[in-house]
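Severity: low
Component: inverse-folding endpoint
Summary: output formatting inconsistent between runs
Steps to reproduce: submit the following structure tokens with default settings.
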């Protein structure tokens, strides 16, 4: 069971510090564990971007080589950080989340590039693991997608989601493009640009500008002011159906049509399921003709749409979020037993083999060891204060770790990297204005 990474342009040139730059004797050649004098400040190792590999909700991702160990990693530039307090908070939240995550199915920060002096500090660069492809590319490719693939992918999506939700984090943009995969089918949830901490107070309003439309839960489409982690489970249901049918389940042109396609499948929801919907959305549903559910069409998605698969799918695609299955409960569904077995037999890092057989972990789907805290946001009242907090966070995060990394700004690749970042940022902000 293997996947090929999508074909990519060849990697350009020397990815070690610009060949014209003076070699840095303190860095990559020092053997691991070489004791360093405490007063000696290491010069940072320089790295160059080599090619773009993707675009998140906010920011561009490039492939780079870590000059300290020659390992290929992903470099994400977080742009426009200090434009205003909102972007400052958003980026700091994403940064702290990436440093908080410790789970094999959730992308985390391996390192953060050394920031310059605070007066020149404008951008943040984060290093994460480099993955070969994502589920969107896999779904639209001609590569075969067997039931075994679907089970092991869905298992890992839910395993990662259980971890996020147990930390009190809503992802809010689960879609195939945000599920990175490797050729060995390892999957990691990425892009936390829209993620936030769960809001326990139902009277507090939450933004509606979340989730790519095709994967957006009915309660968000209906304008509910408050929603929970079940919006992510809805998205996973849509992706499960997309993996089975290899086409987007609800591919609508507008949010209203999105809602219409959902009710075509699930039937007109009862009034109780629309209790917190906005008046306009409720009126739209009630104005239309009463629709019966037509869930049996899910059996026609593909041969893989067995009774078990459709049963689980129907538990995720529930209109009323209070009645929708949780990510954690979905993991107990028998459809995922084979995916769990496959994952822990040959893919995971939590179990291991001894001559007499496999030693399995005690908890196949571990929750987070503590909730993600966002209390630090309360002390962020201005952009300058935010800048100081972020600068201190990065500096403290790096203390006692490996030789710090920085970018070689003289390299031609870096200039292209900067240009593509600027180009994409303007595209994103235009989209946001609509
Ligand atoms: Zn395991």
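Observed output (run 2 of 3):
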């Amino acid at each position: 069971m293997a996947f090929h990474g999508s074909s990519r342009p060849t990697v350009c040139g020397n990815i070690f510090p610009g060949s014209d730059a003076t070699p840095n004797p303190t860095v990559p050649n020092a053997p691991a564990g070489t004791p360093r004098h405490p007063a000696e400040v290491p010069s940072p190792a320089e790295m160059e971007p080599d090619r773009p590999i993707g675009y998140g909700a906010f920011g561009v991702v490039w492939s780079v080589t870590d000059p300290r160990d020659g390992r290929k990693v992903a470099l994400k530039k977080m742009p426009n950080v200090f434009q205003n307090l909102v972007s400052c908070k958003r980026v700091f939240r994403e940064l702290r989340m990436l440093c908080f995550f410790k789970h094999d199915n959730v992308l985390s920060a391996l390192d953060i590039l050394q920031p310059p002096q605070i007066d020149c500090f404008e951008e943040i660069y984060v290093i994460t693991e480099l993955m070969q492809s994502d589920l969107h590319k896999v779904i639209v490719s001609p590569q075969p997608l067997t039931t075994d693939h679907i089970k092991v992918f869905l298992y890992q999506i839910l395993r990662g989601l259980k971890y996020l939700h147990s930390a009190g984090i809503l992802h809010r943009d689960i879609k195939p493009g945000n599920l990175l995969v490797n050729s060995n089918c390892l999957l990691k949830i990425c892009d936390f640009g829209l993620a936030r901490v769960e809001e326990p107070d139902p009277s507090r309003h939450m933004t509606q500008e979340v989730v790519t439309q095709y994967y957006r839960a009915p309660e968000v489409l209906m304008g509910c002011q408050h929603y929970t982690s079940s919006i992510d489970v809805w998205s996973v249901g849509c992706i499960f159906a997309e993996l089975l049918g290899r086409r987007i389940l609800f591919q609508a042109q507008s949010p209203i049509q999105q809602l219409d396609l959902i009710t075509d499948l699930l039937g007109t929801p009862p009034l109780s399921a629309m209790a917190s919907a906005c008046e306009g959305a409720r009126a739209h549903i009630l104005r239309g003709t009463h629709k019966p559910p037509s869930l049996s069409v899910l059996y026609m998605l593909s041969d893989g749409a067995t009774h078990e698969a459709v049963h689980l799918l129907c538990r995720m695609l529930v209109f009323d979020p209070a009645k929708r299955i949780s990510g954690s409960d979905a993991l107990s569904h028998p459809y995922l037993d084979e995916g769990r077995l496959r994952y822990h037999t040959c893919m995971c890092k939590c179990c291991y083999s001894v001559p007499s057989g496999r030693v399995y972990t005690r908890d196949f789907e571990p929750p987070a060891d503590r909730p993600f805290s966002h209390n630090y946001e309360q002390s962020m009242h201005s952009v300058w204060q935010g800048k100081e907090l972020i600068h201190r966070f990065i500096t403290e995060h790096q203390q006692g770790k490996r030789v710090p990394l920085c970018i070689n700004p003289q390299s031609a690749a870096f200039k292209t990297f900067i240009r593509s970042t600027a180009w994409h940022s303007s595209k994103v902000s235009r989209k946001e204005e609509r």
